[in-house]
Structure formats: C-alpha cells, structure tokens
C-alpha cells in the first residue's frame, strides 16, 4: 500500500439517491492502492443510522474477515478504519441504504456498477471483493457469474464472495470464512489470525 492516502469521506450522491440529500449515508473506508477493497451491495438501514459498515448484529462480515485470516482479531464495526493500515477497505455498489438489497432497482445496480468502475480506476485497489453474487450479476450484466474469480475491471482483479448477511442461509459461518480465506490466499496476504 505504497503512498496510500487514507480517507473516510462521504461518497458523492448518486442521481435519484434520497440518502444523498440528507438521509443517513455511510462513508467509504478507502485509500489509494489497497490490497483488497470489499464491496457490499448497499448499506442496510441500521448500518447507515449507526454510521458504520456491516453494523447490523446478524451480519457476518467481521467474523468471516477474522476467521479467514484478514485480521488478527475480530473487529467491531466501529473499528472499520483500522482496516486501512492492513491494506483493506470498504465501499458499496449502490450508496442508497435500504432494508434489504432486494429493494434496489436493476437500474440502481447497473448505475452503481458503472460508478464502481470509476472508483476502482481512481483508487487502484489490487482486488475488488464483491460481497454477493446476485448483486454482482445485476451490476455487471454477468448472469452466469459464480463465487470466486471474475473478470478484472481494468488493472483491478475481481473476486465474488458470498453475501455475509445473516439472511444468507446457503453459507453458514465456517463456509463463509472458507470463501473469504480463498480470496486472502489468492491475494497473497498473510494469515493474520495466526499472529
């Protein structure tokens, strides 16, 4: 993460985004040249109100991140900025918070995918880790996409992970952590859970 410029800044509002006009909105946890930029589909309403990414009690992002070896301890949502020195960051495809990702329109996801391409080009992360194959399929017109490596966005490699929402019954905690660990290994990052 040479020359990284850490920032916690509010994302620019997207057209038609009510959250961009005074509603609760999360900030990106980003820096230039990150090793992995984790990309949620969109913020949940509770997370937006609390002001931290993946802050909903049932969300399994933080436990999976630790169990997979990305972090030496299980972070709390309030510690999200401590990801930056590890070369990790967080953003989302769509900025508008909703109760469920299913509340997003296809157009919002497609526009969010274009916006994410621009952000990735500017920030230059080595990897984008998309959290949710359904959101990835809609945002990038990739109906056949599966969990694992996906086509690169310019110089940035892409990996699709399962959605860490507690509602995703297809991936219990151990299986979710295993998928996160596959990405960590592919990215060549050390197993920090062993330190």
| Residue windows where pLDDT falls under 50 for at least 5 positions | 1-22
Number of discrete helical segments:
5
Order the strands across the largest sheet as they lie in space.
4-3-5-7-6
Rg for CA atoms: 15 Å
Strand residues, percent: 15-25%
Helix content: 25-40%
**Intertermini distance:** 20 Å
Structural class estimated from helices and strands = alpha/beta
Shape: globular
Query: Secondary-structure element order, as H and E?
Result: EEEHHEHEHEEH
Give average pLDDT, whole number: 87
**Major β-sheet profile:** 5 strands, mixed
Q: What is the strand tally?
A: 7
Describe the structure.
It is a single chain. 27% of the residues lie in helices and 17% in strands. The chain has 5 helices and 7 strands. Helix 2 crosses helix 5 and helix 3 (106-123) packs across helix 4 (133-139). It is globular and about 45 Å long. Residues 1-22 have low confidence and may be disordered.
